[in-house]
Amino acid sequence: MPDDRCELLCLDLPRAEAIRQRLRPGLAARAAARAKALGDPTRLLIALAQRDGEELCVCDLAWITGRAENLVGHHLRALRSAGLASSRREHKIVFYALSDAGRQLLDAHLELSAPTR
């Protein structure tokens, strides 16, 4: 039998059911979508650039990250859809910035990803 399974049924039903009742699948789905949005290296680079540059247009972000503008636009839409970035139009230019949730998630992720000594 694989090491990742119990060899006998040892379910603590009252405890397991109490935990199960507290689970919030909708919240888990939203949190997973946000985590997934930062799970792509290009999106993470874009988020890092936004953190340092505050509000930037697609042209700036493409040059900063060394990626094509259409690719950056695609990733910005993903960040915006996940609630991690916001956008605003000023005449013919669209500016993007990290949302508060985006900044908090990015900071937490970077803190936990930092090498330990």
Task: Characterise the protein shown here.
By secondary structure, this protein is mostly helical. It contains six helices and three strands; from the N terminus they run H-H-H-E-H-H-E-E-H. It has helices spanning 13-22, 25-37, 41-53, 58-65, 69-81, 100-113, and strands spanning 56-57, 85-90, 93-98. A three-stranded antiparallel sheet has the order 1-3-2. Helix 3 crosses helix 5 (69-81) and helix 4 (58-65) packs across helix 5. The mean pLDDT is 90.
Low-confidence stretches: none
Shape: elongated
Summing up helix and strand content along with how strands pair, one would put the structural category as mainly alpha
Q: How large is the count of helical segments? A: 6
- Counting DSSP E segments of at least 2 residues, the number of strands comes to 3
Percent in strands: 5-15%
How does the major sheet shape up? 3 strands, antiparallel
Strand order of the largest sheet: 1-3-2
What percent of the residues sit in helical stretches (DSSP H or I)?
55-70%
Termini distance?
38 Å
Following the backbone from N to C, one meets helices and strands in this order, namely: HHHEHHEEH
Kindly provide the radius of gyration, computed on alpha-carbon positions and rounded to a whole number of angstroms: 20 Å
Short overview:
This protein is mainly alpha-helical and 117 residues long.
List the helices and strands and how they pair.
Blueprint: H1 13-22, H2 25-37, H3 41-53, E1 56-57, H4 58-65, H5 69-81, E2 85-90, E3 93-98, H6 100-113
Antiparallel strand pairs: 1-3, 2-3
Helix pairs in contact: 3-5, 4-5
